[in-house]
Design a protein that fits this description.
The chain is α/β, with parallel strands linked by helices. It has 2 domains: 2-313, Rossmann fold; 319-500, Rossmann fold (3-Layer(aba) Sandwich), CATH 3.40.50. It contains 19 helices and 13 strands. It has an 8-stranded mixed beta sheet, sandwiched between helices. The protein has a 5-stranded parallel beta sheet with strand order 10-9-11-12-13, with helices on both faces. α1 (14-28) crosses α11 (301-313) and α7 packs parallel to α9 (232-255). The radius of gyration is 27 Å and the shape is elongated. The model is unreliable at 408-429 and 439-486 (pLDDT under 50).
Length: 503
């Protein structure tokens, strides 16, 4: 996915957002991210990755464009073949220290040019004629049919383009033609807000977008705000009003079942989740906010905002339904909130049950829609006829991935300690094993998976309903099931990885 990051003026945290979103996706989502510095007049993205100008002695973006211009000027354009057209190759790509050889995740950079010889680089930027490139040398076609596919073919999950501020000759290339989505970073003042909204309108109303060449996906990000300032509420309300048309475009995509927008976006929640507060600790220098020691579930509020923005850019995950008894609602709602923080599409929780609809009927309906089902196993659910009946039905569907979540209200009370009760887990396991033994002994069943679950439930008494739980044990050994152990944070990360690997 190609994403352009734009701000009307400098100093609003745009490049910092680019660098830290890339770092987050690399560390916690195992993504391959390519960064392109299109801020040609003031490049600097590389400083966030411990690079200096001296590290860039080879060819960059401007050199590629110059080669194209010379090729077209020195040859008959009708005779130029696709193979002759210059493309981004390894020589243009500079690796950073962000490389995980196990997962393949990495962050690389395509610089604007050879910064090591900055006077020559500066002169190339001054001399390049964008008007000639576009109007007389068929530059738009070259970008559309050669460079855009070229970027896709490089094999990165994301290409982030750090665009030029203000209004420039090449603005449409970065913000419209080469990308699938835009992130527009806005400081809390009128010049930034009005300027960014004009650019946002030019994107969504451009012929390129209107003709269906790309979707009108534009995410506004309010940056460097002080939510405690006296006049901030007034500005935020104005910001929401002016940005509403961008959110409406996203919701229209959702209404038309576009996979990229899996749920309706409420602008109040969106602004709350994505606004970046002013933080004096990172006001000086090029700061990376994420490292290998951060737990993505336990990030502070400032880090969490970056994570929320990343989740909007990530392709939506499979649909997840959490199944539980009413007594475990608090646990279910906490689990739902935690998974949503990690970018998982949870279909519903108890707060989503429509008025007048029984929770059992509602949960049964969403399990039909879900790709992944998460039953919450507590001591109380073992004697719930309704829960066991639901489990019997959805566990029989081989297309459903099942993730078992051992929990209880006692577990919820100990979340701050970040540990499950080991005694609870052991007792639950022992109870399941004893249930299995008793079922085999009492009913003389040799193959629990071959029985008709409905008939089985009819034949045994209500006090024996928990005997159906051996079916859970049978599912534990299957490839599409994850059994959680005793660390909540690590387990939720395991859950996220397992859900995203669902086919």
């Amino acid at each position: 996915m190609n994403v352009a990051f734009y701000s009307y003026k400098g100093g609003v945290g745009r490049t910092q957002l680019v660098a830290n979103l890339a770092r987050y996706l690399y560390l916690y989502e195992n993504k391959k991210v390519l960064l392109m510095d299109w801020d040609l007049e003031a490049p600097g993205l590389h400083y966030y990755f411990k690079k200096t100008n001296e590290d860039f002695k080879g060819e960059g973006l401007i050199d590629l464009l110059e080669k194209y211009v010379q090729l077209v000027k020195n040859n008959n354009p009708a005779e130029i073949t696709e193979a002759q057209l210059p493309k981004f190759e390894a020589v243009h790509i500079t690796p950073t220290e962000c490389l995980n050889e196990t997962t393949g995740a990495r962050i690389d950079i395509i610089a604007a040019g050879a910064y090591a010889d900055f006077p020559t680089y500066r002169q190339k930027i001054i001399d390049f004629n964008w008007n000639e490139f576009y109007k007389f040398l068929d530059g738009a076609r070259y970008l559309e049919y050669t460079i855009k596919p070229n970027l896709k073919d490089l094999g990165y999950d994301f290409v982030f383009i750090d665009s030029r501020t203000g209004i420039s000759d090449y603005q449409n290339i970065c913000n419209i033609q080469l990308v699938d989505a835009n992130v527009i970073v806005i400081a809390p003042n009128m010049q930034n807000l009005e300027g960014c909204m004009e650019v946002a309108k030019s994107i969504v109303e451009s012929p390129y977008v209107k003709e269906g060449n790309r979707k009108p996906i534009v995410f506004p990000i309010l940056s460097r705000v002080d939510v405690y300032a006296e006049d901030y509420p007034v500005f935020e309300n104005m910001y929401k009003q002016k940005c509403q048309f961008l959110i409406d475009n996203l919701n229209e995509l959702h209404k038309n079942n576009d996979a990229f927008i899996p749920f309706r976006i409420d602008i109040n929640e969106y602004v709350k989740n994505t606004r970046l507060p002013y933080n004096i600790r990172i006001a000086i220098g090029e700061n990376q906010l994420f490292n290998e020691n951060h737990n993505p579930l336990l990030l502070g509020e400032f880090h969490q905002q970056f994570q929320n923005i990343a989740n909007y850019l990530l392709q939506p995950s499979k649909k997840v339904a959490i199944i539980y008894i009413l007594k475990d609602s608090a646990t279910a709602n906490w689990l739902s909130t935690s998974l949503k923080k990690l970018g998982i599409n949870v279909l519903a929780d108890t707060n989503s049950v429509p008025s007048g609809v029984k929770m059992e009927d509602f949960m049964n309906e969403i399990t039909k829609q879900a790709d992944v089902i998460m039953p919450i196993l507590s001591e109380d659910c073992l004697t719930s006829t309704q829960f066991l009946h639901e489990f019997a039905h959805f566990s029989a569907d081989p297309q459903k991935k099942i993730i078992l979540f051992y929990s209880s209200l006692d577990v919820l009370n100990n979340i701050q300690g970040d540990m499950f009760s080991e005694n609870l887990i052991e007792n639950s396991k022992n109870k399941l094993l004893k249930a299995r033994e008793k079922a085999l002994e009492t009913l003389n069943l040799q193959d629990l998976e071959s029985i008709n679950l409905d008939e089985f439930m009819k034949e045994i008494s209500i006090n024996q309903k928990f005997l159906i739980l051996p079916q859970i044990l049978a599912r534990l050994n299957k490839e599409n099931t994850v059994l959680l152990d005793n660390n909540i944070s690590e387990n939720l990360i395991k859950i996220v990885k397992s859900i995203k690997e669902t086919t």
